Amino acid sequence: MSFNQDFLWGGATAANQHEGGYQEGGRGLSTFDAVTGGGYKVPRLVTYKNVDGSIGKVPVDSTMTGQVPVHTTGTILEDTFYPSHNATDFYHHYKEDIALMGEMGFKCFRMSISWSRICPDGRYQVNEEGLAFYDAVFDELHKYGIEPVVTINHFDMPMYLADHYDGWSSRKLIDFFLFYARTIFTRYKDKVKYWMTFNEINVLSGWCQIGVHDNSPQNLYQAHHHIFVASARAIQLGHEINPENKIGMMVAYTPSYPMTCKPEDVLEALQFNRQKTFYMDVQCKGYYPEYKQKEFEREHIVIKMEDKDLETIQAGTVDFIGFSYYMSTVSSTDPDVERTEGNQFLGCKNPYLTTSDWGWTVDPLGLRIALNQIYDQYHLPMFVVENGLGAPDQMEEDGSVHDSYREEYLRNHIKAMKDAVDLDGVDLMGYTPWGCIDIVSAGTGEMKKRYGFVYVERYDDGTGDFSRRKKDSFYWYKHVIETNGEEI
Ligand code: BGP
């Protein structure tokens, strides 16, 4: 048998994409509340107000330097559709969603807590109703024997902290975050044992994700230093509050292959891959690696640190490595090689592989490669906490959804994980395919790009009554879990 008996089969979502209820239960505004929908190659926009009261809109992933002056504030416009306000309404459907997860036999559910539901403006005030909501969610999960796996911060933050502190540019964020982390570690001490501090720490940037208005390398690396210190201190705190806690990091892992065996291409791929390993080196090995220190020197980037920061980073290393894997990419020094979309970056097109409808390369073997690369370097338990195929599913008149393409994608990736366990001996804790119940896409803000085993009747024009339908893949995944991955 490949996978351990206690292998954590499940699924994953995030608050800003699944939860909704944005003005209910005392929740404060969060950055993603001011982000519009978009589409394939249509950017999502942040709506904001200037000091003189005029309104502006700026693409989420554009560098905001010079476009959004620091003293602007995110704002919600009446005539604009914001997908995260309702998302797919987990807030009101959590019992139904969890029952569906129970029916599939989930052993775990990865979800995130909305920071502004716990601390409405991000500072030292706690919203009891928010805490009670997650109590109810965790109790419901335990009713079905499902272990919560909680991402403390998944791509959003209280809007107040972005607008008034310039987000993670400010060192003060460390204390605000620790207050929030202490509150939830303490409250859920007996309910949650698996945690991850920051989702996809290696891609965090911009106003929506980390509240910064200046995306220059100097400012971003300073913000990331604050995030590293906050994460390391939260890990120490989480272990103090409950020594049983398993607290991991989370990285977006997209391995890059050299386009050719030309040494320049190989070096290019190595450097691309270091954009991930840097974050793993800091959080798993507890130090800033030499190649990054040299880059800082070369680029005149100076990180302001306090005396104990490096000791803190060394003392707060992670218990496991969570990562998302959707695709691989290719690196080349030739500017004429064809490029294709990817998970938050543009890479070269791999002539041996196909792509999804959103241009993401499909590469199951790349997951085995990823698991080996990570395990070789860090020798820590690993958890594939995101993987899946975004596709424009069609619901038939009778409510059925035939998504055999999703089964095929997941089957091939599970096979790759099995090989990594059976043939290579990696230590794999679990697997939580992304968007197990349909959710709003983070990249495009669409409902059209669906990942789930469960279809949610919600559409990009804001229509739909949020009813849930089991797709064909629902029954397939249930069987996978029943047989512990032996029959896929
Ligand atoms: C990861 C994020 C998720 C997510 C997923 C799929 O980067 O952690 O939040 O949504 O990618 O991306 P998308 O929603 O753009 O298809």
Give a written overview of the molecule.
- The protein is of the alpha/beta class.
- 36% of the residues lie in helices and 15% in strands.
- It has 14 helices and 17 strands.
- Helix 2 (90-104) packs parallel to helix 4 and helix 8 (217-241) packs across helix 11 (309-315).
- The chain starts with 7 loop residues before the first strand and ends in a 6-residue tail after the last helix.
- 6-O-phosphono-beta-D-galactopyranose binds next to loops.
Please report the total strand number as a whole number.
Answer: 17
On the 0 to 100 scale, the average pLDDT is: 95
- Biggest β-sheet: count, sense, barrel? 8 strands, parallel, barrel
Kindly provide the radius of gyration, computed on alpha-carbon positions and rounded to a whole number of angstroms: 21 Å
In the CATH hierarchy, the third-tier topology is known as TIM Barrel
Strand content: 5-15%
Q: What is the global morphology?
A: globular
Contiguous low-pLDDT stretches (5 residues minimum) are none
The side-by-side strand order for the widest beta sheet comes to 1-5-6-7-8-10-14-15
In the CATH hierarchy, what is the architecture at level 2? Alpha-Beta Barrel
Hetero ligands:
6-O-phosphono-beta-D-galactopyranose
Describe the oligomeric state of these chains in a short phrase: single chain
Question: From the helix content, strand content and strand pairing, which structural class follows?
Answer: alpha/beta
